[in-house]
Amino acid sequence: MAGNTYAPSDLGAPAQMSEHAAITEDVRRALAAEEGGRRWLRRAAALGVVASLVGGGLVFRAKNRPPPPARYVTTSPTMGDVAEKVQATGAVQPVLQVNVGSQVNGRVAKVYVDFNSTVKKGDLLAELDPIQYGAQVTQASAQVAGQRANLESSKANATAAKAAFERAQRLFQQNLASKGELDTLSGQFEVAKAQVSAAEAQIGAIQAQLSQSQTNVGWTKIYSPVDGVVVSRAIDPGATVVASFQSAVLFIIAQDLRKMRVMADVDEADVGKLKETMEAEAVVDAFPGESFRGKVEQVRFSPNNVQGVVTYSAVVEVENPDAKLRPGMTATVTIKTREVKDAIRVPNAALRYKPTPPMGPNGKPVPQAPEAPLTKGTGRVYVVTSEKLGDEKSEPRVVQIGITDGLTTEIIGGLAVSAKIVTDELDDTEKKKKGKMF
User: Fold this and answer.
1) Which residues of 404-417 are buried (b: 16+ CB within 10 A; e: fewer)?
2) Does residue 53 form part of some domain?
3) Distance CA 178, CA 190 (A)
4) pTM of the full structure
5) Distance of CA 424 to CAs 115, 392, 408, 437, Å?
6) Mean pLDDT computed over 56-85
7) Using an 8 Å Cβ cutoff, are 410 and 403 in contact?
8) Which of 260, 292, 337 is nearest to 87 (CA)?
């Protein structure tokens, strides 16, 4: 049948196609395997590069790692002056301050000076109304005149009595007068003499009153007793002054403001260090950065007890050439009690330093043997024996100490200038543990 006839080429086509497909699949697998191998090679190469970079970085870091921080803060002794000082506070006062009052009562008529007025000795400061005391003077003068008239009358009576008594004596000697008449005239004469004495005494009393009244008139004028400056005035014209057992203070006059004194309250623990003529410096808040030189004039024995705190007053006189210091200012006085020149000195922090105890495996401080107690005049410092970073070491050393200025202390013996001493530690971990322990 012509329609169902197959050519030979048509019969072999499916076989050829399957064989071609198999070859193609094998090629694809080969190519895939080769591509996968290359991928793993690339990955291995990348990992190798990363490992090389990391290793190089670690090596570089190890080579360039900074040294461990120092454990100690150290210093060396220095050469210099050490001055022991005592500080105290007190009020500024004039060296001589005079309180001027009134001896009499009265109304203030005039005031001639004001605050800060410069006055000389004998200058009139104020005047009270003298009318009352002037009237007393007039009255006493009249009484004196009246008593003097009485005295003259008494003297005349005494003269007459004396003459009568003498005449009676002559008559009695001639037996012309009786004894009774003589005794009577004698008594009258004695009475007349007594009246003269009484009149003289009365005149003296009235004259004393007159003198007092005249003095009161003089006291109505108030004069300056010294040269100086009026630092206080407590009266005005028209005011009434009442003088009692303690006269009121009307004026305060400072004699010389170029020299002032500070009444410094020194603590009882420091008063034994003070002596007269010691140098001192005073500072006040009004002039920061400026000091006023002076010296100790007196250390008083009388104690001041304020709420159980005992202090002693030291009188420090300071120079005030420009009159900057004013009465009443609060001054801080620094008194130099002792001084050493060119001494070996160390910071006080070195004498206060104590090493941090090492920590045990349990995180607690390892007990250390107690240090030997220090005797008077000695101190303990820690001298660095190894400066190797990370392995620093120090050992205690007892030294002879002298005076201190609050920041440094004099070393008398037991320490060389070239030594390195510890003042503090920088180990934060140890510091924290130490803080927890204490």
Assistant:
1) bbeebbbbbeebee
2) no
3) 19
4) 0.59
5) 58, 13, 15, 17
6) 77
7) yes
8) 337
